[in-house]
Design a protein that fits this description.
2 helices; mainly alpha; about 80 residues
């Protein structure tokens, strides 16, 4: 039961950490892009950031799930 809790915990952590990392990277690109924030942009850059962050959440959760399963299997094999 503890292994299942750890697996779910890593999946939830991945679902939070990856979108935050994507947000940080996208904000750097937003600042560096001279077209973002201009009247002709009309929110395109901001919506792109939002979509990238929302898209990263399930990917991060899936990666966290995989990491949690692998760590659980390795821990079971070593007997720790």
């Amino acid at each position: 039961m503890a292994a299942l809790a750890r697996i779910i915990g890593t999946a939830l952590a991945g679902g939070v950490v990856l979108p935050l990392a994507v947000l940080a990277v996208m904000l750097v690109f937003y600042v560096m892009d001279s077209r973002c924030g201009t009247p002709g942009d009309s929110g395109g850059c901001e919506m792109g950031i939002a979509m990238m962050v929302l898209s990263a959440s399930p990917v991060g959760a899936a990666l966290g799930l995989i990491v949690g399963i692998v760590r659980s299997i390795r821990k079971r094999r070593t007997g720790s």
